[in-house]
Amino acid sequence: MKLATLRDGSLDGQLLLVSRDGQRAVRAGAIAPSLIEALRRWDEVQAPLGELYAALNAGSAPGAFDFDPAACTAPLPRAPQWLDGSAFLNHGRLMEQAFNTPPIPLFDSVPVMYQGASDDFLGPLDDVPLPSEADGIDFEGEFGVVTGPVPMGVSPEAALACVRLVVQVNDWSLRALGPHEMKTGFGFLQAKPSTAFAPVAVTPDELGSAWRDGRVQMQLNVLWNGERFGEPHGGEMNFHFGQLIAHAARTRRLTAGTIVGSGTVSNVARSAGSACIAERRVIEKIDQGEIRTGFMAFGDRVRLQACFEDGQAGPFGMIDQRVVPATGAP
Amino acid sequence: MKLATLRDGSLDGQLLLVSRDGQRAVRAGAIAPSLIEALRRWDEVQAPLGELYAALNAGSAPGAFDFDPAACTAPLPRAPQWLDGSAFLNHGRLMEQAFNTPPIPLFDSVPVMYQGASDDFLGPLDDVPLPSEADGIDFEGEFGVVTGPVPMGVSPEAALACVRLVVQVNDWSLRALGPHEMKTGFGFLQAKPSTAFAPVAVTPDELGSAWRDGRVQMQLNVLWNGERFGEPHGGEMNFHFGQLIAHAARTRRLTAGTIVGSGTVSNVARSAGSACIAERRVIEKIDQGEIRTGFMAFGDRVRLQACFEDGQAGPFGMIDQRVVPATGAP
Predict the structure, then answer these.
(1) Which of A239, B52, B100, B133 has the highest local Cβ count within 10 Å?
(2) pTM score, two decimals?
């Protein structure tokens, strides 16, 4: 199933089903008013949602209409938790050099993860209001999963079975603020403004063999102001999503709708490019001796779209966002 | 006003007003179904809530009943964000020694703060299920504030005017897991299981002169298994709550109901005792050459209650919790 959320001014929005071809949608409010409510009653709503999805794909769902990503919020405009890993070790190792921070202990064997704000996500085409270009504005292309309820102390294998949906993420980051916050040991806060999501969340079966080994085996195509920036592959994730969820649930239960992110998608092969600017900058420094690329300016756009290995567009739809000065920003 | 939340199986619970003497309560659902909803419509509900509160105090509120903290969840059983500072520098400096972590840069001039989970808070008398005594189970007595909506880039002075409620907090911590998470730079996650709150949230005016300079000028009385552990005073907070809120809102807006914590209440004077075990342990090491106190065992209780400077019990009610093995824990 493919699910999205129609913006209606409420905190959780209205649940939509989106057709497999991404062209049509239908309100699913008679089954569950919102995606978060569907996730809380998943066992009960899964079958009726599946029937409506089948009707939508067959062209027989009453009230279906053309799907408009611009009318959508993030699939979950707010979530119980947003927990973002750093599961592509290639990215993490490069960022240690970019930030000049000490090596993370046990980085190869224990996932690292920060707790992000989850009350105020951005939609796929929303402008991104930020206070200052001097903060080092950067995107981070990621994949993520949405869980059902997860018990405390779950195993990585059992955790993987708690995955309900797969999502595509833009984890906005402010690079001038990150190194200080890492050095405090308290983690990212100011360095992580509101996170954005592609419009469509999908059940893992929609990905077919591209959901394999607890990873999203797809390329993430990144364009910055219309120019190719990279297309790293999600399969290089060093910890799978079950391991990330189990890490998050070591000392707490997770409630339905918790979102767990992969961290910036990153490949060892330089030819893949990058899914964030900070990584390109440190690669420039390593490979060419100097940093040539600046961070984003107000007015800049980033576009993120996942593709299957055969080049076909993925089911999540597109993140396409512009950074703008926050009201009152200098 | 004094507000609390009746447990009813829903995610946000039912809004109660509690009498000034803490003895009586009345459902306020006709004005706002829950505290979070009241905070979202504060300008509109403040006057009718005030009228009902006056009637409750006068003994003329229809349907009033005896207030029972055991029937309460945290005032906000879930919140948009839980952002916990470390605004008592005495505590922070001692913890650096306890954890053997590097000095936090700019610790005297820039607040440190971590993003905690905010979807699954514990009530004031709830048992605390945790996976293992080996994790170093510890309490942390704190004060906190609940904000209205806060714009991005707010000044500390304007931020202080966004305070709607004052709360009392027990920020449960697992000390064996904290140092590693600090060293990753990604901040606390496993080291911070669900946080607990005293039953009553109060508008700042209820504190009279004990709400002064953006700080809670009260003692926090801490008993561990019935024995005196400390009574540090909230007035020694090195950053005031307006500064903490402004720090949190530097690159994001805060939505109504965001909770900002002080960090562990801590005084320079050794005679004040401590509001967490980790602090007592490092003081023992410094002053007596060896650590004598262990962390909590399953079955242990901690009681936290704020008192005015004249010794009178504060308006928040009591946190009184027992740690228990999580289901399935070894």
Answers:
(1) A239
(2) 0.97
